[in-house]
Amino acid sequence: MGGNLIDHGAARAIVEGRHGDPFSVLGLHKRDGAWVVTAFVPGAERLWVLTGKAGKAAEADPVPGCDGLFCAALSRKSDYRLRAEGHGTTWEFDDPFRFGPVLGEMDEYLLGEGTHKRLWQVLGAHVITHEGVEGTHFAVWAPNAERVSVVGDFNIWDGRRHPMRRRGATGVWETFIPGLGEGATYKYEILGRHGAPGPLKADPVGFGSEHPPANASVVRRIDGEFHDADWMATRAARHSIDAPISVYEVHLGSWRRAPGDRMLSYLELAEQLVDYVADMGFTHIELMPVSEFPFDGSWGYQPVGMFAPTIRHGTPGEFRALVDAAHRKGLGVLLDWVPGHFPTDPHGLGRFDGTALYEHADPREGFHQDWNTLIYNYGRVEVANYLVSNALYWLEEYHVDGLRVDAVASMLYRDYSRKEGEWIPNKDGGRENYEAAALLRRMNVTVYGEVPGVMTVAEESTAFPGVSRPVDHGGLGFGFKWNMGWMNDTLSYMHKDPIYRQYHHHQMTFGLHYAWSENYILPISHDEVVHGKGSMLEKMPGSGEEKFANLRAYYGFMWGHPGKKLLFMGCEFAQGREWNHNQSLDWHQLDIPEHRGVQALVRDLNRAYRDNPALHVNDTRPEGFQWIESNDAGASVYAWARKGRAGDPMVVCVVNMTPVERSYRLGFPAAGHWDEILNTDAGLYGGGNRGNLGGVTTEPTGWHGQAQSALVTLPPLSAVWFRQASV
Fold this sequence. Notes:
- By secondary structure, the chain is α+β, with helices and mostly antiparallel strands.
- The protein contains 13 helices and 37 strands.
- Helix 4 runs parallel beside helix 5 (about 315-330), helix 7 (about 380-395) packs parallel to helix 9 and helix 12 packs parallel to helix 13.
- The chain is elongated, with a radius of gyration of 31 Å.
């Protein structure tokens, strides 16, 4: 009987898992004037269709030669459930093929156009109630697939059981699986154009993942409450170029470990990390990538789950709690965001539907030689939409305050790290990647337009023009840019023995020639303390004491220099060894006075930077800076004034980069008493306690081009700050 209700060819295609439109066959359909239920239930020996509130049962007929396929004719159209019997067991369930589509026409239109700003609201796995039944809706973009199925423990990873519905020309496939809820693991089985299944794929818009090395996606809810209204109302002012911004960069897996060398959870970090960063006086925590990634050794810079906070530390809800806790302590949270490349892991985005979908087909455009990773095809509208939507996702769903974009230079140049013949020029024959620049502009316009008060930061290592200039003024639209040139020049200088520094004096001043060309952040990041570069302390010349003194002087120079600040974890207490992502920072070193002294100095630098408008209001404007002495190479002394708004007390910073104490006549930009507000040689910081007994008073002796001057004590290898006592 069952064989008369279904076309034999269609029946074989369903059972063999190669039917391109299973929803046209399975479920309830009108055939020859009768309503027919067709169901494929592998393992079932008998099947009943249950209709009506009482669950009236009509036994379905097996389709000959098609094990597990059944048909039943109903007297009228009706909602129904299925009851199966096989191998000694009976089970009852809702038929996923009786449910209509979830995505609406507007979703379909925006998806097809590549302009759906909130892609995560329609793609991925969502626990919903659909047509009165609870379950999970799945949707994925795979335009070149012949068939896409959801597979998981719930269907014995059998791609024949839950094939998806193709949504027109969008390339999106969707299905609703009743009875499936949070915590279910799943992947997509995708048949390419030639009918052969590729490797099972994790969900590109999945909200959760299994613990590595397992890599299936996990159904996760991302809703939840926040308690950060006060922070959200004030954060725009905290991200202004006039605001004090001091960032603590953190790798969550190695900041601190729990007993047994276990990584801390998001909830533990919400207490321990947040309290520590607040106590240290930083304004922001920057997290190295938290998007799910397969390989610990990539530190997160090779992400696969762009919409999934890594399960290494907990669930999406627990990550939200970490951000919320930071906000309640007055701290912003920035995320490292990686649109520059993705790994070749079989479960990832590479050849997702059997074709080069997210990446370029030509390795000269689509493969990063440095990292053995794939490069997004930024010119494809759906790919650009995926990335821009992902940026918006973190800001909207988790209240993250900003994104730091990794490796922007590798995106902007087609010949990045490539020899002649290994890259393809742009349409004008040049090396600039127009599509990547357009993506970054679109991302910045979107996030600044949709989420008030956020900030974006570019790690861009070249002199690409206008990185932090608004898009409508021809720029890329970032809020800030890392000053990699300043970092490289000043660390090169600090590495030298003080006896030779006089010959490299202007490595420390060169940054002022371009300091106002972008909105700069001065970065001492994780990249400076890995791969054999040694710790910040190891970079410093001299004996043990001199190493600490050099480092303290450098931090004094950095915090007094124009530009926002960023410091990688461990550098704030002068960790002795290079960073290792596999173990905790060496917190035990805080038992040693010199390390504790550097930590105390950084805490005080942050406080002075925040409390003195002269040190931050004009971080990005030339009117806030004045050289007093930039050419005294013989003494390796630098002196400058920082100025805020009218009426703000000025601050004079002076740095002695030799191990010689100096009695030094210094010009001051105004008459009167100047308080010594910071001295890196203070005993509290591990220094020799040499200084100016709390301050100096100027006299009308012209010096350094100023009408007033004073004789000041410059301790060896030190930075000293003076603040105008009255204005």
